[in-house]
Fold:
Amino acid sequence: MAVKKSELYSTLWKCCDELRGGMDASQYKDYVLVILFVKYISDKKRNDEGFDIDIPKGCYFEDFVALKGNPNIGEEMNKKMAALAEENQLGGVFVADFEDDTKLGKGKDKVETLSKLIAVFQNENLDFSKNRAADDDLIGDAYELSDEEFCHRER
Structure:
């Protein structure tokens, strides 16, 4: 079954809840949309080898999940995003720095924040493999929502 917008929006709210306090709300989207993108392309690629985005070995969502609890999670996430960007000529697109102590905390706090952010997307109801981009632009909807409203309001 395709992911419903209501489920996606609920997930985005949960992500923002994990990021509250460390950075300006306008910056949440930089982190949330990156994880959403990785989850989306991983689900699509697993079920459609002809999917237009190339995912280098070690850069699927499951590889991000494997980083949960790792003391070098931020550094490793940055490496994976750099590899995805390079493989798909997306230089400058991903602005989130998963090693930024000022936004994500230091040491165990950063590991916990990033681990929780990844865990939000481990929801079994978030399987994007059945979504058809021609019929439903969930990534675009998520960007518009994040840019306009969802991260700026307090719940």
Remarks:
- Residues 28-47 form the longest helix (20 residues).
- Residues 66 and 73 are 9 Å apart (CA to CA).
